[in-house]
Amino acid sequence: MNISGFEYFSPRSVEEASQLLLEKGKGAFVMAGGTDLLIKIRRKLLKPAVIIGLKGIPGLDKISFNRKQGLTIGATALLSDVAHHPKILRHFPAIAYAAKSTANTQIRNMGTVAGNLCNAAPSADNAPTLLAMGAEVILAGTQGERRLPLDQFFIGPGQTAIEPGEILTAIFVPTPPPHSGVSYQWISARGKVDISAVGVGVMVTMKGKVCSSAKIALGAVAPTPMRARKAEKILSGKVLSSRMIEKAALEASREAKPISDVRASAEYRKQMVAVLTGRALSEARQRAAKG
Ligand SMILES: Cc1cc2nc3c(=O)[nH]c(=O)nc-3n(C[C@H](O)[C@H](O)[C@H](O)COP(=O)(O)OP(=O)(O)OC[C@H]3O[C@@H](n4cnc5c(N)ncnc54)[C@H](O)[C@@H]3O)c2cc1C
Q1: Does the domain at residues 63-174 carry the CATH identifier 3.30.465.10?
Q2: What is the pLDDT of residues 179-192, one digit of tens each?
Q3: N or C: which end of the chain has fewer CB within 10 A?
Q4: Each residue's pLDDT tens digit, 211-247
C-alpha cells in the first residue's frame, strides 16, 4: 500500500494521545488497526497530516469481565481477541459471534471492535448487538473521562459524538438480567467477502413466557445503526409467541429506512429486516429459556 505524507506518533498513554490530538488539530487522526483508516487514505477520501497510533498504549487492549458489573473491551482489543475470548464466548456469545462475523481472519487480526464503532458505518457488524445489550462507550480527553450510552454515540454516517481531543478507551457491556437471550443475525450477498447488507441484534428478557423487555437494533438500514423502538414496544409485557414475533418483525421492517446501493435494494433490505428480526427474536427466546 503506497501511502505517505503524514507524521506518525505512537504515544504511550491515553493522556499523551489526547494531548497530541488537540495540539495537531483537524488534520490529526487516531488509528487502531487501520483497516478502515488506511483504506480511506489510499482511496484519497482522507488526507491526514498526522496519524496517532493507539496500539503502543499499554493496557488499552485489555478485556475484563466481572459477573456483577459486566464486560469491558479495551479500545485496541482485536476483533479476533473478542471473537475467541473464553469469557465472552461463555457469557456474551452474541458479541463474540458479531466480532467473528466481521470481515475475514486477516482483518480481524488487525482491526478492533472500537474502530468498528468509531468508523460509524451504518453497516458496522458489532453495533447492533452492542446497542441491543445497552452498551456504553468510555471517552477520554484532556479534561477527563465520560461514559456515553452507545444509543447516543452514532450521529450520522461516519460521524460520532466524539469531541475534539477525545479517544474511545473502552466499551462497557452490562451483564444481562437473568433469563435474557441475545442474538445477532446478518445477511450479505457474498458471505464475508462483503460487508453486511442487513444486520439485526436483539436482546429479550423473559419472565416465564412473558417478555419483560425487548431491545431490537438494526444495521445497514438507516444513516446510523438504529433501535426499532416501536417493534420493541409491541413485545414488552406480552407472551413471546411466534405470532407476536412476526408482528414485531414486520414493525421493525416498517421502521427501517434503507437505501438502495451496490449491496442490496431498499425493498430487499426491508424484507430482510423482517426475516432477520424474526430469526433473532426466536433465537434470543430460545437462549433465554436455556438461561
Ligand atoms: C477487506 C475488508 C473487509 C471488511 N469487512 C467488514 C465487515 O464484514 N463488517 C464490518 O463491520 N466492517 C468490515 N470492515 C471494516 C473494518 O475492518 C472494521 O470497521 C474494523 O473493525 C475497524 O477497526 P480498526 O481498528 O481497523 O479501525 P481504524 O481503521 O484504525 O479506525 C477506524 C476509524 O475509527 C477511528 N478510531 C479508531 N479507534 C478509535 C478510538 N479508540 N477512539 C477514537 N477514534 C478511533 C479512526 O480515527 C478511524 O476514523 C472491513 C474492512 C476491510 C478492509
Answers
A1: yes
A2: 999 999 999 977 76
A3: N
A4: 999 999 999 999 999 999 999 999 999 999 999 999 9
Topology at the third CATH level for domain 180-290: Enolase-like; domain 1 (3.30.390)
Ligand 1 neighbour 76 (Cβ under 6 A)? no
Bridge partners of 29, per DSSP, are: 51
**For residues 152 and 1, what is the distance between their CA atoms, to the nearest angstrom?**
35
Question: CATH fold of 7-53, please?
Answer: 3.30.43
The verdict on the CB of residue 153 being under 6 Å from ligand 1 is: no
How much distance in Å is there from the Cα of 263 to the middle of ligand 1?
19
